[in-house]
Amino acid sequence: CKLLKEMKENGNMLFKSGRYREAHVFYTDALKIDEHNKDINSKLLYNRALVNTRIGSLREAVADCT
């Protein structure tokens, strides 16, 4: 769970600095760590949806929200 939180925090830092594609990689990789952790994964999916919106991948953003 510690690694999962670190991955999320790294993605957040990248997002805040405008490095959206790199943040996307961190969020995607973090989602693979513990597929049953609904609490963290819901936040990761939300964050990845924001990234997808910023990079113009609107279909992917919608998919992350559903």
From TrEMBL:
What organism does the record attribute this protein to?
Answer: Drosophila heteroneura
Do you know which SUPFAM superfamilies this protein is assigned to? TPR-like
Q: What is this protein called?
A: Tetratricopeptide repeat protein
Residues spanning the signal sequence:
none
Q: Which domain of life is it from?
A: Eukaryota
